[in-house]
Specification:
Blueprint (H helix, E strand, L loop, with lengths): L5 H8 L3 H14 L5 H5 L4 H14 L9 H16 L18
Length: about 100
């Protein structure tokens, strides 16, 4: 995600600054970049976990660095920190259930 296009991406997602900061934190933590189409399709933590895992699987030089369980744990922790929510399911919607908007 590119910072200079954050306004366009937040409109696509229906997310405000919280959503942009969440995506940026995830990208930084895992060293991946989610493109506009990927970001636009993210509706739940499960979607975000799957998108990051797909990116990590494609990086053969990072093989073994992350497990799916660890990716899920770290993303859930980032969501807690960025959004200030403690209790949520992986199927909770970012905008409707987690208050990103």
């Amino acid at each position: 995600m590119k910072l200079d296009r954050a306004g366009d991406e937040t409109r696509m997602l229906g997310m405000g600054l919280d959503g942009v900061e969440l995506i940026m934190a995830v990208e930084e933590e895992f060293g991946v970049s989610l493109d506009d189409a990927e970001v636009a399709s993210l509706r739940t933590p499960r979607d975000l976990i799957a998108a990051v895992w797909k990116k990590l699987e494609a990086c053969h030089d990072r093989e073994g660095e992350w497990t799916q369980v660890r990716v899920r744990q770290v993303i859930r922790q980032i969501i807690r920190e960025q959004l200030g929510v403690n209790d949520f399911s992986n199927d909770a919607e970012f905008v409707r259930d987690l208050g990103v908007g």
